[in-house]
Specification:
Largest sheet: 7 strands, mixed
Distance between the termini: 39 Å
Number of domains: 1
CATH architecture: Beta Complex
Number of strands: 10
Shape: globular
Strand content: 35-45%
CATH topology: Metal Binding Protein, Guanine Nucleotide Exchange Factor, Chain A
Number of helices: 1
């Protein structure tokens, strides 16, 4: 049995990564910070830090959006890619934007979070559970 590998990159290809193993459940964050960062919602999967490997990351930049989280993006093309809790001892995972994978993910959206902050221009109608926080 071979272990799954998932590859991804930013829009310009300057940041490339591989994830070894299966991806976690998908979620969509509707908080105002994610909406401002992406222009809509942030659809992501969580993976163990040890499963994420960078093939290239010269243009990878980090923005500390709060005292708890930093967000990774390509400094060349601006693609939002990573959601990284800064307390690595408590959180052994990193969020990766589902849209940055270049091959099929096999991930279904299992929940919507921070729906109390969602934009007024769309409806959530996929049947996945919705959480105000």
């Amino acid at each position: 049995m071979t272990q799954a590998k998932h590859q991804g990159s930013c829009l310009c290809g300057s940041v490339k990564f591989t994830v070894d193993g299966e991806l976690g459940a998908g979620d969509m964050c509707h908080c105002q910070q994610c909406r401002l960062w992406t222009g809509h919602v942030y659809a992501s999967t969580e993976v163990k830090r040890s499963a994420l490997h960078f093939d290239s990351k010269e243009t990878l930049k980090w923005f500390e959006s709060s005292g708890k989280v930093r967000r990774g993006f390509c400094g060349a093309c601006g693609s939002p890619m990573f959601f990284d809790p800064m307390d690595h001892q408590q959180h052994d995972w990193i969020g990766i934007a589902l849209g940055s994978f270049t091959n099929a993910t096999g991930v279904d959206i299992e929940r919507h979070i921070f729906t109390a902050e969602k934009g007024d221009y769309y409806i959530i109608a996929d049947g996945a559970p919705q959480h105000d926080y």
